[in-house]
Design goal:
This is Metal ABC transporter ATP-binding protein. Pfam families: ABC_tran. Keywords: ATP-binding, Ion transport, Nucleotide-binding, Transport, Zinc, Zinc transport. A six-stranded mixed β-sheet has the order 5-6-7-3-8-9, sandwiched between helices. Strands 2-1-4 form a three-stranded antiparallel β-sheet, with helices on one face. The radius of gyration is 19 Å and the shape is globular. The protein is of the alpha/beta class and 252 residues long. The chain is built from nine helices and nine strands. It binds adenosine-5'-triphosphate.
Length: 252
């Protein structure tokens, strides 16, 4: 699959703090890249760099299309102010504003697109509810509907499953599956070694000043996770003996 984005010899950090050096990777169409690392390893910084909010210390991002692509972005739920007084359908419609313009009306086809996105996210019946009345899982579904409407070739999800139950997670994974089948590239920041990784093709592990990238099964090894400070030796021994093992991605 052709890349939508190429990172070349990238170093990332702040004055006096280098988080990692010399990262080169391609984000391919149809790939699902999980970004993991201990607290403070640089996941949020990596997200900011992808969004163009900060420059790498050195190296570069290449956009094979010749210009930066639109990124469908889902921020961490904790960063979202749900007291903002709008309805679910208005929040979702914000994802489509490029298509219809900020100050013009949605029109029938726009309204149909919003309804279809809310339906796919499983919250059509909540369309007229105010955001502050939603549960965490319902709000996450509304934010997914907004990303659906962005219709972007590259999708960046920052901890999309942090506050959702198993059935919501499975539902949101089915949306990610569709995106992947359509050839979109999906980058997800995930916090734990959960079953989500079964649905990812590649992993980027940050920590202890390094960034390791490759197939999930090659990167998330016991030795690597300990070396990069993600797990202690005893946690790793417990985990690799028990619930977590290396499976090939099942690609929901
Ligand atoms: N604007 C900044 N200026 C200087 N240092 C920063 C800045 N933002 C973050 N850092 C530092 O960079 C490091 C990486 O932070 P970052 O937020 O990217 O980590 P993270 O992996 O997302 O952490 P967490 O899992 O705790 O959210 C931390 O040591 C943090 O203190």
């Amino acid at each position: 699959m052709a890349p939508v984005l190429e990172l070349r010899n990238l170093s990332l950090g702040y004055p006096g703090l280098t988080l990692f050096k010399h990262l080169s990777l391609d984000v391919d169409r149809g790939a699902t890249l999980a970004v993991l690392g201990a607290n403070g390893s640089g996941k949020s910084t990596f997200v900011k760099m992808l969004l163009g909010l900060m420059e790498p210390l050195c190296g570069r991002l290449n956009w094979p299309s010749g210009r930066p692509l639109e990124i469908g972005y889902l921020a961490q739920l904790t960063e979202f102010d749900r007291r903002f007084p709008i309805r679910v359908r208005d929040l979702a419609a914000m994802g489509a504003w490029r298509g219809f313009g900020l100050w013009s009306g949605l029109g029938r086809s726009g309204r149909n697109r919003v309804a279809a996105a809310l339906d796919e996210a499983g919250i059509l019946e909540l369309a007229d509810r105010s955001l502050h009345t939603l549960s965490g899982g319902q709000l996450q579904r509304a934010l997914f509907a907004r990303v659906i409407l962005q219709d972007a070739p590259l999708i960046l999800l920052d901890e999309p499953f942090a506050a959702v139950d198993q059935s919501t997670e499975a539902h949101l994974l089915s949306i990610i599956k569709r995106w992947r089948q359509e050839g979109r590239a999906v980058v997800l920041v995930v916090h734990d070694l959960s079953s989500v990784l079964d649905h990812c093709s590649h992993a980027l592990l940050l920590g202890n000043g390094t960034a390791t990238h490759g197939l999930v099964k090659d990167v998330l090894t016991q030795d690597q996770l300990v070396a990069q400070g993600y797990l202690s030796q005893s946690q790793a021994s417990w985990m690799f003996k028990g619930s977590y093992d290396h499976r090939e991605p099942t690609h929901v």
